[in-house]
Design brief:
The protein folds into 2 domains: about 40 residues; about 140 residues, 3-Layer(aba) Sandwich (Glutaredoxin). Helix content is about 35%, strand content about 15%. By secondary structure, it is an alpha/beta fold. The termini are far apart.
Length: about 190
C-alpha cells in the first residue's frame, strides 16, 4: 500500500476548509451584525403608532348604526382598516376610500382577513356610491380617534389595527393607497 502524497493531502484539506468557510462566513457576519445592534428594517408605507395603543384595552367605543359597539378583538384573526375622513368628504376622499376598498379586494382569498371600518359622518352619497357595501360605518362619539383624523377638507387618513385591537400603522392624509395595498399584502397572508 502506498503512502498518501503529502501535497495532495494538503490540497484536499485546504478545499475542505474553504468549503467550511463558505458556509460559516454568513453565520459569522450575521452574528457580528446582531452583536453590534444592527437590525434589518423593512420599508413600510405607514407610520408606526407611538406610543403604542390598544383600542380594545382602552375600551375605545365605536358605535355602529344598529347601536351595537364595534368589537376591536376579532373572533378570528382579522385586521381592521379604519378610515377617518376630514371635514366635507367629497370627490378626493371618496376616491381614496374606493382605492382602500380595492386594496382589500386584491388580497383575493385573504380578503376576509381584513375588515373595513369608516368612522365619522359618512359622505352624503355613501349609500348611492356603494360605499356601504364594503365599509362598516361607525361613530366615535367620545372623540378618542380625533388625533388621527385629518383637519383638511376632502381628505382621509387610515389606521391599520391588529386583531387584538393594537394600532399598527397610521396612514396620514395624502397617503398613497398603493403603498397601503403593499403593506396589507405583507401583513395578511
Amino acid at each position: 500500500m502506498n503512502a498518501p502524497d503529502p501535497a495532495a493531502l494538503r490540497a484536499s484539506r485546504l478545499k475542505l476548509l474553504l468549503i467550511m468557510l463558505v458556509f460559516a462566513a454568513p453565520i459569522a457576519a450575521a452574528g457580528m451584525l446582531t452583536l453590534t445592534g444592527w437590525q434589518p428594517s423593512g420599508k413600510a408605507n405607514g407610520e408606526a403608532v407611538t406610543p403604542e395603543r390598544n383600542f380594545a384595552n382602552e375600551q375605545l367605543a365605536v358605535t355602529l348604526p344598529d347601536g351595537s359597539a364595534w368589537a376591536w378583538r376579532a373572533d378570528q384573526p382579522q385586521l381592521t382598516l379604519v378610515a377617518l375622513a376630514g371635514p366635507d368628504c367629497a370627490t378626493q376622499c371618496m376616491a381614496t376610500l374606493t382605492k382602500m376598498a380595492a386594496a382589500r379586494i386584491t388580497l383575493n382569498q385573504n380578503a376576509s382577513r381584513l375588515r373595513l371600518l369608516y368612522v365619522g359622518a359618512p359622505p352624503a352619497h355613501a349609500a348611492a356610491s356603494g360605499m356601504t357595501d364594503y365599509w362598516q360605518l361607525g361613530e366615535d362619539h367620545a372623540g378618542k380617534l380625533a388625533a388621527f383624523r385629518p383637519g383638511m377638507p376632502d381628505s382621509v387618513s387610515a389606521l391599520l389595527v391588529e386583531s387584538d385591537g393594537t394600532a399598527l400603522s397610521l396612514y396620514p392624509a395624502g397617503f398613497d393607497p398603493t403603498g397601503l395595498r403593499k403593506d396589507l399584502q405583507k401583513v395578511i397572508r
